[in-house]
Known about the structure:
The protein is of the alpha+beta class.
Amino acid sequence: xxxxxxxxxxxxxxxxxxxxxxxxLCCPPYDIISEAERKAFIAENQYNVIRLELPKEGENVYxxxxxxxxxxxxxxILIHDDKPxxxxxxxxxxxxxxxxxxxxxxxxxxxxxxxxGVILPHEFTLSKAKTDRFNLMKATNCNFSQIYALYxxxxxxxxxxxxxxxRLDPMCAFTDDDRITHRLWKITDEAVIAKLIAxxxxxxxxxxxxxxxxxxxxxxxxYCRENGISKEGDPQxxxxxxxVDMEHPGLVVFPTHRLVRGLASFNKHNVLAGCEEYFExxxxxxxxxxxxxxxxxxxxxxxxxxxxxxKGEWYLLTLKDIAVMSRVxxxxxxxxxxxxxxxxxxxxLEKTMGIDKENMANQIxxxxxxxxxxxxxxxxxxxxxxxxxxNPTRVTEIRDVAAAxxxxxxxxxxxxxxxxxxMVMNDIGVE
Length: 431
């Protein structure tokens, strides 16, 4: 049976002597950057990776990104490491009022169709085009940012190895404006690399973040084969992926809250009446204790969320009996039935409020936010009719759903923090 295949690569990195401080060269993921932020990055340093990762210059932005890339390589702004390496990448950050660290490794990974069961998605992607990323890959033949994937390793052998290899000072490090410290080490010892490759020979990978980019990687590989650019086994079969132990103590998943807007039939009393059959309902008049009560239910293993109606008024909805989910969603595994988002979507949004799956996917009456404050303020301002505040999905739930060959509802998870773009890049044409 095919399992995950990883390999080292000669990373492409900035020569900071020529390009400037690393902090001014990197940027957050392209899909969370506003146009004002994009311009500010370039104003601070003309060599910021955003010009490659989110191109907006010239008539054909992708062709222009390719030209800029060629020039930066020619001018020595971007250089390649001498030897193939696997890179250790650590992020140190604040979450839940504590300082945490998550550490993993960046390698080239052979992309496989989801149907092969080697690399598994964990949630449905929203209906948005992947054309942009595909056009960028065609023009540059590079990955400027990583896909994020998890693996199971009950003995933590891989983590032990990369901890050993990152005992000394990192090759490069900086702290960004969100107080996240990024550190990078390089493993070039062939014996250690061989051990890491062997570690993955019997593993599956679970995509944590970057589903769109992974699907684009498959499309790009197929495009290259169909057009005679590459054949099976060539570098186009591999993509740069950040691999993290699924039981890493620093792994943090934030919830993504739901906002309801523009629903013609919305009436909070009707929603509550519809919920009475399935939920214990507690009324509250201040959001001050909301997170405490949700956390309490979470720690008790209960399915609960807050239904916020505005001006401090909210209702704690706690599911009475999980058994109802096997009747409501008989065609999916117990792992999928028991997700908080499955309970909310099927029993409240669909059954009680009439927001069906297609409506959700197209974000007609439902939008999403990872910010608690936004979920509250949006209702208080009248921009949303109500909001649902959720507990985070557990990493074990993500694993169990993916292992069952299923996907979660869209926006079920928000892995934090997001990886920085630009510390190390994968120039696919360089072996």
